[in-house]
Write a structure and sequence with these properties.
The structure holds 2 protein chains of 2 kinds. Chain A has 15 helices and no strands. Chain A is mostly helical. Chain A starts with a helix and ends with a helix. Chain B is mostly helical. Chain B has 14 helices and no strands. The two termini of chain B are about 40 Å apart. Classes of the chains: A mainly alpha, B mainly alpha.
Chain lengths: ~280, ~325
């Protein structure tokens, strides 16, 4: 009686470990291209070509980073990417929290129309909106500026963020607001002192997802910086670098590493919020 | 609640008074109305008008030409080819991605599987990387002269001559699709894991007390419960796949010989990259592309309604 059960348990444990081994192999293959970029960024140009699949460089060539950072202007591009991303995240969190709050809590004339327009434009592709966005920015004198990129990135889409805030605020008990008003807090104070701090988890999710979208965006900064190479972001700079230095593989790998590492660090630190933000699309 | 609302019944107040009493709500909406209005709503509406102009660059004359741009688009073999390529990418990668990620999600969802979180993280990592950077780097990884993929194939003796993955129109689209699947696989995986989380553990326990084995539980409990999610996940994945601009532009720029010319890349080339930009024609192509996206979104709305009905009838 006990012998077959023991054998079955052993078989099940073997099955689990077989799955673990298969998954481990898949995962190594999966992240290999990323490891290859980091490894290539430390090799000399010849080593990248002849090194094949090996990830360990013969000797470390940090001058690739100096070349990418200084000569290829990736220092400048990093500053641009950081400024544009931070500006966009701040603006999106603020505007979406404000809009989500009043949509959840107030009954104002035109609310249904606002929600209908938001939902109707949920899937507008960038190929449709990009030409008028460029023209409008040109008319406002914002085409060749970081401010213009931030405003366009913050203004395009982010419907899901508004809906996320609205959904969260509609579940907060009304007593909390009423208590704040009893204490003499006005509309603004109630929002900024009571409601917004309560929505911390939503702010984290929205902030992290917006960070990802802004840092990775390519189409918009590409067409906004045609005539201003000094305003390029990392993603646009990478394309330009290949255009001028198509043979400098190790320099390009270093440039790629410079732009990917901050992103991966943010992801690993805040993974939970990334996953929640993406899973939200299915759960709702 | 302000004191005004309590004193006067809402219906009897004038419109102006009602708007005034909610002035803070409008103030809170203002940033979104301005930004979203200027950068999302206005572009969608004005695209319809711009698509009827012969417009050769910012600040240039732009005479009204009616439906000429649309007429040209319908007779433009490259536009049709680009739509065909976009739809091919969707038809090939979406079912593969959704199916394979379901398989992995089912394995990862086992609470007794060691290292499940680590595996999920590893599979998800490409999804957070910058697509444009990946596109450029993949040019090296698939390079015929010294790229690691060709090195591996040569070392293993699978090929005797390096394969020009991205330079050969016969393989370029497949390579782009492969990288695209690799890049975004983690997103679909997280969709499925979220769907699996909605199935309470008690359902499995009940199945087990009824004597169901692992396979029986999967076939008769898990998969039927996941069916409503399948439609949502398929359509979400399809709509995301329509926007493949970053990867294609950086990996192949639509070439060689237009073999990877996705629609958004063609729009970009017409509107911005040509020696004489054609903004009006680009806008017309954008409108047509938007209509295709809208069709998918409409399908999704129907799908969600169906899924909700299936869920509530349980």
């Amino acid at each position: 009686m006990s012998a077959p059960r023991g054998r079955r348990a052993t078989r099940r444990r073997l099955g689990i470990w077989a799955q673990v081994i298969v998954l481990a192999v898949i995962c190594v293959v999966w992240i290999y291209p990323l490891l290859w970029i980091v490894s290539a960024s430390l090799k000399d140009s010849l080593g990248v070509f002849s090194g094949g699949l090996g990830l360990i460089p013969d000797s470390l060539h940090f001058e690739n980073y100096a070349r990418a950072w200084r000569d290829a202007d990736f220092g400048l591009y990093t500053v641009n990417s950081v400024l544009i991303t931070l500006g966009t995240v701040a603006l999106v969190v603020l505007r979406c929290a404000l809009a989500g709050y009043v949509i959840a809590r107030r009954n104002f004339i035109g609310k249904r129309a606002v929600v209908a327009v938001l939902v109707a434009t949920l899937f507008a592709p960038q190929g449709l909106t990009i030409i008028p966005v460029v023209e409008l920015s040109d008319l406002m004198g914002l085409l060749n500026s970081r401010t213009g990129i931030v405003l366009a990135l913050a203004g395009t889409g982010h419907v899901a963020a508004v809906l996320l805030y609205a959904g969260y605020f509609s579940r907060v008990p009304r007593e909390l607001e009423e208590a704040a008003i009893m204490d003499g807090a006005g509309f603004l104070r109630t929002f900024f002192r009571v409601m917004l701090p309560l929505a911390g988890p939503v702010t984290a999710t929205v902030g992290v997802m917006t960070f990802l979208a802004a840092w990775n965006n390519f189409f918009l900064p590409l067409v906004f910086t045609f005539s201003r190479p000094d305003l390029r972001t990392l993603s646009v700079g990478m394309l330009a670098f290949r255009g001028t230095n198509s043979t400098d593989w190790s320099g390009l790998a270093a440039a790629g590493t410079i732009s990917l590492v901050p992103l991966l660090l943010v992801f690993l630190a805040l993974q939970r919020y990334f996953v929640e933000g993406i899973a939200g699309a299915v759960k709702s | 609640m302000s004191s005004v609302t309590r004193k006067v019944p809402a219906r009897r107040r004038g419109l102006a008074a009602r708007i005034w009493s909610e002035r803070w709500a409008y103030a809170f909406l203002l940033p979104t109305l301005l930004l979203f209005g200027a950068y999302t709503v206005w572009p969608i509406i004005s695209s319809l008008y711009y698509s009827m102009l012969d417009w050769k660059g910012l600040g240039a004359e732009r005479p009204f030409v009616g439906l000429d741009n649309y007429r040209e688009a319908f007779g433009d073999p490259l536009f049709w080819k680009s739509l065909g390529i976009t739809l091919t990418i969707i038809a090939v990668t979406v079912p593969l991605r959704v199916g394979l990620s379901l398989l992995i999600a089912l394995v990862l969802n086992n609470p007794r599987l060691p290292l499940a979180r680590l595996f999920r993280t590893a599979l998800f990592v490409p999804a957070v990387t910058t697509t444009a950077i990946i596109g450029v780097v993949m040019g090296f990884i698939f390079d015929p002269a010294g790229g690691p993929v060709n090195q591996l194939l040569l070392d293993l003796g699978i090929v005797d001559q390096p394969v020009d993955f991205l330079g050969d129109p016969a393989s370029s689209l497949w390579t782009v699709m492969g990288v695209h699947m690799w890049k975004w696989f983690g997103i679909t995986l997280v969709y499925w894991l979220a769907a699996l989380q909605t199935i309470p553990a008690t359902v499995y326990e009940a199945a087990k007390t009824d004597g169901a084995g692992n396979w029986a539980a999967l076939r008769h409990v898990t998969l039927p419960l996941l069916r409503p999610f399948l439609i949502i996940i398929l359509l979400l994945t399809a709509i995301e796949t329509m926007q493949i601009f970053d990867l294609v532009l950086t990996m192949t720029n639509g070439g060689p010989f237009f073999s990877t010319l996705a629609t958004e890349v063609y729009i970009y080339q017409q509107a911005f990259a040509n020696s004489t930009p054609r903004l009006g024609y680009g806008a017309a192509l954008g409108v047509l592309f938007g209509l295709v996206t809208l069709a998918f979104a409409a399908l999704q709305a129907v799908g969600i309604r169906y899924a909700n009905r299936a869920r509530s009838s349980r």
